[in-house]
Amino acid sequence: MPFDYNLDFRHVDFRQHPELYRVGKGEQGVLLVQPYKGEILPHWRFRTPELARQSSETIYQQFLDYLKAEDFVGADMARKFLQMGFTRARRYANHRGGKKYAGPVPEDKKGQSGAHGRPELPRSPEDPAKAEAAAIFKAKWDEAQHHPDYVAQKTRFVERYGK
Questions:
Q1: All structural domains of the chain with their residue ranges
Q2: Pfam families from the entry (predicted)?
Q3: Helix orientation angle between 72-94 and 49-68, rounded to the nearest 10 degrees
Q4: pTM of the entire structure?
Q5: pLDDT single digits (tens) 109-118
């Protein structure tokens, strides 16, 4: 099921109400779902390979901790942050300054993924440090999404909540 952007994210505690969570596609909801955003975001850094390594390892440990606690929503959010570390570092590797699309995001699309009809800006010469940071996050993201406990908990979550 697609991610539900109509929820009142300022007031929903997804640890208390996992039935409201939807896995969605890719990174959908990564900066909305509390309390996980607040727990994971402070550790999310990708400016240099060293920061990316430390960040991805910390977030991956959070991922393992959520799995151990049978908290699939937390584990999925940690996986999304690892994925976002890869995609954002790649964006900065390809686009100096991190802007991929021209123009502002339409008001009704803020917080959602996608270009929303905006043209893509030309690529800059690749930044090797950001490319390395992206590769570090990609390795941890792959490890997370293929972790057997994650796969099993995701299957159970989808069977239970249909999301």
A1: 18-97+123-161
A2: DUF4385
A3: 160
A4: 0.86
A5: 776 666 667 7
What is the dihedral sign for C-alpha 21, 22, 27, 31?
A: negative
Kindly report the CA angle at 144 between 153 and 21, in degrees rounded to 5?
45
Closest CA to 46 of 101, 84, 74: 84
CA-CA distance, 130 to 83, in Å (whole number)? Answer: 14
CA distance 92 to 127: 7
pLDDT digits (tens, 9 = 90+) for 48-106: 999 999 999 999 999 999 999 999 999 999 999 999 999 999 987 877 766 666 677 77
- In sequence order, the 6+-apart residues with CB closer than 8 A to the CB of 107 are none
Distance from C-alpha of 160 to C-alpha of 156, rounded to nearest angstrom:
6
- Tell me the C-alpha distance between 117 and 41, whole Å: 28
